[in-house]
Design goal:
Structural class: mainly alpha
Number of strands: 2
Number of helices: 25
Shape: globular
Distance between the termini: 48 Å
Strand order of the largest sheet: 1-2
Order of helices and strands: HHHHHHHHHHHHHEHHHHHHHHHHHHE
Length: 462
């Protein structure tokens, strides 16, 4: 047993994992600034719960970034593309935009300029969602399928260091002592971590299967025979960048069931997360209490859950790990209902936050590894963005009504959290169907395809 556990640890001992840790930090840093901490900032400025819930709509770019993922996947940026390569040039560009957008947010006053705050938030989420496309693609490109679990765990560790510890707890402490404006200005500098990681890391070599190469060759030949050379080249590029990735995915058995599962799986957890900061404040907890328990204790529990999640996915398989973690996550929503009944008790806050964060760590690793395993390496950014965006679509759009739901329940938080637990169970029957009908969907269960490496400087048409 000890030998098997130690063999699981070996998956983390890889130089590439340090890069993924830093990029995960850059991906997670903006999250509390547009979700939990922003909700508290808005509530402290007497913005209504309904309006706070509607602010979730500003995060829509996370749900639709698959629309521009083909450009990120195939379009080479001028100058930067030649200097840094496809993945790194896009990453650096989005990070510059992200830092600028966070600074704009810091100069917005939600009490008097709510619309400006919404626009600044929208720019942050757009830049952040585009950065996520690049980071997720980079992670999949530099790893082998058997490393997806450990790679997901390391990336999520970085995400929570940036999002939960620095952006979340650090942001709350800074806001408590220096105000929200200064907090956001300081946190904008945290984007430099991602910039440094990108500049110090190599550009990944992408590998395209022979089947995909042949399909793209046929597309170029078809257009070349019908249109002038320039127009044929543009049409072939658009086909291979935009149409082919979606067509390849839809040729798979049960593709519609996969999309339905991804859409509903983490909805209950998202509804809880959207209103948790408001809930803490209405119970009477101060910013320092929230930072200590929700961000520090919760961070430790989450890190442990992520660590075990990576090992669990490697030992029992991605799908089984995902089912077990999903069930535990739904059950821990009930601890928030218990907190609503007990009231302003710090020990109960710790119980709810620690248990929820632990199971969230478990489930997130398995979910990210599952999405990664579904990606064809020829269309990494597009496939992952499509799947992740679909999950975000439900969590962002449907969770926008969470504040309205609490208002309709007359502020009965206990009932609200019980309902989120039931909603969190909706995805498990779909996952069970996937496990029984399509057990070989994940890439670690399929024999490897013969692949041809594609030079980072290759033309997107080749």
């Amino acid at each position: 047993m000890q030998a098997r556990f130690l063999s699981g640890l070996d998956a983390y001992l890889n130089r590439r994992m340090l890069t993924l840790l830093a990029l995960g930090f850059a991906s997670g840093l903006p999250a509390p600034m547009v979700f939990s901490n922003l909700s508290i900032w808005l509530r402290d400025n007497d913005v209504s719960r309904t309006d706070i819930g509607l602010f979730a709509l500003a995060a829509t770019p996370y749900a639709i970034n698959f629309l521009w993922a083909p450009l990120v996947d195939r379009l080479r940026l001028p100058v930067l593309g030649n200097l840094l390569g496809q993945r790194r040039s896009w990453a650096l560009l989005t990070q510059v935009l992200l830092m600028s957008a966070i600074l704009w947010m810091s100069f917005s006053n939600p009490a008097e300029q709510l619309f400006m705050m919404a626009m600044a938030t929208l720019l942050v989420t757009t830049a952040s969602a585009t950065q996520d496309i690049v980071i997720d693609a980079y992670r999949i490109d530099v790893l082998e399928p058997h490393q997806y679990g450990s790679g997901a765990a390391v990336s999520i560790w970085g995400w929570h260091i940036g999002g939960t510890l620095v952006g979340g707890a650090g942001g709350l402490y800074l806001a408590n002592f220096h105000g929200w404006e200064v907090a956001y200005q300081v946190l904008a500098l945290g984007v430099l971590v991602g910039m440094i990681a990108i500049l110090m890391s190599p550009e990944p070599v992408r590998r395209i299967s022979r089947e995909v190469s042949e399909l793209e060759r046929r597309a170029r030949a078809r257009f070349a025979g019908r249109y002038p050379p320039t127009r044929a080249a543009v049409l072939a590029w658009l086909h291979n960048a935009v149409v082919a990735p979606f067509a390849e995915f839809m040729r798979r058995d049960g593709w519609w069931l996969i999309l339905l599962f991804v859409f509903v799986f983490k909805l209950g957890d998202a509804m809880l997360g959207r209103m948790s900061g408001v809930f803490y404040r209405e119970l009477g907890f101060g910013l320092d209490d929230i930072a200590e328990v929700s961000k520090i204790y919760g961070f430790g529990a989450n890190m442990f859950g992520i660590f075990l999640g990576g090992i669990l996915a490697a030992r029992i398989g991605i799908l089984r790990a995902l089912f077990l973690a999903g069930l535990l996550t739904a059950l821990t929503n009930l601890t928030y209902a218990a907190l609503a009944v007990v009231g302003q008790e710090k020990w109960m806050l710790a119980v709810a936050v620690v248990s929820d964060n632990f199971t969230t760590g478990l489930v997130t690793v398995a979910f990210v590894a599952y999405l990664s395993s579904l990606c064809n390496v020829a269309y990494t950014a597009t496939h992952y963005a499509l799947l992740a965006s679909l999950g975000n679509l439900a969590r962002i759009w449907l969770s926008a009504g969470s504040g309205y739901m609490v208002d309709k329940l007359d502020g009965d938080w206990a009932v609200f959290f019980v309902l989120t637990a039931f909603i969190a169970l909706l995805g498990l029957p779909l996952l069970w169907m996937l496990m029984k009908r399509f057990p070989t969907h994940t890439s670690d269960a399929r024999p490897a395809e013969a692949e041809a490496p594609v030079s980072e400087h290759s033309s997107p048409h080749r």
